[in-house]
């Protein structure tokens, strides 16, 4: 009897050790390599949808205090720093509310001049090519009824291509004054151009220019997606509907 009891205790201890080790490894990976995020808004449609879950690479830009839980003041600036590239989809801390994570696309680099003219993006005085690329079916916040939104493909000066939505041809941010990106800062924009609070919005309520220190990492891959923005989606009391709410076709898609 005593041998059996000792064996059972030994087995439980080994299981506990394995669980603790697995949690420690998972935490280490999350803190230093890849952190999961979920997408709560539609500002990056159609690239990222509400209900997408992504892995963000912290190795891409090195580490700042915002790379770690609770943003400890361990050091200033970044270590092992690598500059974001034009076209990257990146997670960063909002400059005037650093406890909030945002995700947008890197459009302007330090020293660039960015401007919107009649819905056309200009970088350093040159229009970014913008070609029709079909339509995207979405639901607005004011209505649950689906509607089609024109999609365009933009090509940045470094050759990066991506899709943007243009839900309002005369949106409030379709015509702006030129923005001169300060040194050490970046100009971020959402792909859902008429439904994105980004660097085009300056001041206390906007995003403004984003310092390099505020970058958390680059979005790499969608590992899970559920249609949480659809009416009645993912109803906890009816698990038999869950397979129909999950967007199986978005699993393991690279973020471009």
Provide an overview of this structure.
The protein contains two helices and 15 strands. With 256 residues, it is α+β, with helices and mostly antiparallel strands. The strands form three sheets. Strands 1, 2, 3, 4, 12, 13, 14 and 15 form an eight-stranded antiparallel sheet that branches. The protein has a four-stranded antiparallel sheet with strand order 7-6-5-11, with no helix packed on it. A three-stranded antiparallel sheet has the order 8-9-10, with no helix packed on it. The protein is globular. The chain starts with a helix and ends with a strand. The mean pLDDT is 88.
Topology:
Layout: H1 2-32, E1 34-38, E2 52-57, E3 89-94, E4 97-108, E5 113-117, E6 120-123, E7 126-127, E8 130-139, E9 146-155, E10 161-165, E11 179-180, E12 185-189, E13 210-211, E14 215-225, H2 242-245, E15 253-254
Antiparallel strand pairs: 1-2, 2-14, 3-4, 3-14, 4-12, 5-6, 5-11, 6-7, 8-9, 9-10, 12-13, 14-15
Give the overall form. Answer: globular
SS field, number of helical segments:
2
C-alpha end-to-end distance: 61 Å
- Describe the biggest sheet? 8 strands, antiparallel
List the quaternary state of the chains: single chain
Number of strands: 15
Give the helix proportion (percent range): 10-25%
Our Rg estimate from Cα atoms comes to: 22 Å
């Amino acid at each position: 009897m005593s041998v059996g009891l000792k064996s059972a205790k030994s087995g439980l201890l080994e299981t506990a050790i394995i669980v603790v080790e697995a949690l420690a490894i998972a935490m280490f990976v999350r803190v230093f390599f890849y952190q999961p995020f979920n997408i709560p808004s539609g500002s990056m449609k159609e690239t990222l949808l509400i209900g997408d879950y992504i892995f963000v690479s912290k190795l891409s830009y090195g580490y700042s205090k915002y790379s770690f839980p609770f943003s400890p003041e361990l050091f200033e600036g970044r270590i092992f720093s690598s500059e974001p590239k034009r076209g990257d989809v990146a997670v960063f801390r909002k400059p005037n509310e650093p406890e909030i994570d945002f995700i947008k696309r890197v459009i302007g680099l330090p020293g660039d001049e960015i401007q919107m003219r009649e819905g056309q993006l200009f970088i350093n005085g040159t229009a970014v090519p913008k070609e029709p690329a079909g339509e995207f079916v979405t639901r607005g916040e004011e209505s649950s009824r689906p509607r089609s939104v024109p999609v365009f493909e933009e090509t940045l000066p470094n050759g990066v291509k991506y899709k943007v939505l243009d839900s309002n041809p005369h949106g409030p941010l379709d015509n702006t004054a030129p923005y001169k990106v300060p040194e050490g800062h970046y100009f971020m924009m959402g792909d859902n151009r008429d439904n994105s609070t980004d660097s085009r919005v300056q001041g206390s309520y906007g995003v403004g220019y984003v310092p390099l220190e505020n970058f958390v990492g680059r979005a790499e891959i969608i590992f899970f997606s559920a249609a949480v923005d659809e009416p009645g989606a993912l109803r906890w009391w009816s698990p038999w509907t869950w397979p129909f709410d999950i967007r199986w076709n978005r699993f393991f898609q690279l973020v471009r």
